[in-house]
Amino acid sequence: MTHAPDPADDHWSAVAQDWADLWGTFTDPARRALLAATGTGPGTRLLDVGCGTGELLALAASAGAAVSGADASPGMVDRARAAAPGADVRVAPAEALPWPDGSVDVVTFVNVLALTDDHEAALAEAVRVLRPGGLLAVCGWAERETNDLAVVHAALAADDGEPVDPDEPEDPWHEEAPVRGVLTDAGLTVEHVEVVEVPWAVRDVDAVVRGVLLGEDAAGVAERGPVVRAAAEPFRAPDGGYRFRVAARLLVARTPAR
Ligand SMILES: C[S@@+](CC[C@H](N)C(=O)[O-])C[C@H]1O[C@@H](n2cnc3c(N)ncnc32)[C@H](O)[C@@H]1O
């Protein structure tokens, strides 16, 4: 099985600038927690997989780390290179990383692992490129009751005619136990778990609509924008901006010392 990026699947390049503008920095509190929990500092060799527009690369570089990034989307990679000029950023899928065995100290996935086609292959690649005793950090959104944006997504689903199920099961990627499970299955030992508040603060309702409907065409935004506006209303701040409570969960796990 090959894992060469398929240009037809690259919807991220078209939204790279909007991603950077609207979502780029919002997980910074979790990124800082990740750098602290992994002890990233001068000389740490850190590889960020699914590096997006490069915000973690820039933070790690400013902490003195030697940083590399991989992302399947050429448009995201262009912006990551601009955000972290000293970093070695490559267009590459998580499932086939072009780095040698044992060549990095820390591998990170921030809001990425759940998006991969084959998370087992992605984790196997992370373990391969890590040195013995290296650290893998996985960060993603926590359960929906910690995430105000779930209200907006529920309104969109209802508008689409999807049945409302009050007992809808949680997405396993948003729970601690399943993520722990995939890390353990990959041969890693979880050493640290932390939930970090990452509020999404947006300047006005137009930006809320652009952010939530990222990647939709003009017709989709015209049709669904009013639903987003109405659902966002409870989250309007006194200054006219919008503030959504969101929590991210960080797990840090270690590879065997060999
Ligand atoms: C939600 S964004 C997160 C970007 C960044 N990690 C952040 O936290 O801002 C997901 C990113 O993962 C990348 N991605 C998704 N699947 C991937 C895969 N299998 N291999 C490499 N990159 C992938 C996308 O191109 C996109 O840049």
Automatic annotation (TrEMBL):
Coiled coil: none annotated. The keyword Cell membrane does not apply. The keyword Cytoplasm does not apply. One of its GO terms (biological process) is methylation. Transmembrane segments: none annotated. GO terms for molecular function: S-adenosylmethionine-dependent methyltransferase activity. Residues 47-137 form the Methyltransferase type domain. Keywords: Methyltransferase, Transferase. Pfam families: Methyltransf_11. This is Class I SAM-dependent methyltransferase. It comes from Cellulomonas triticagri.
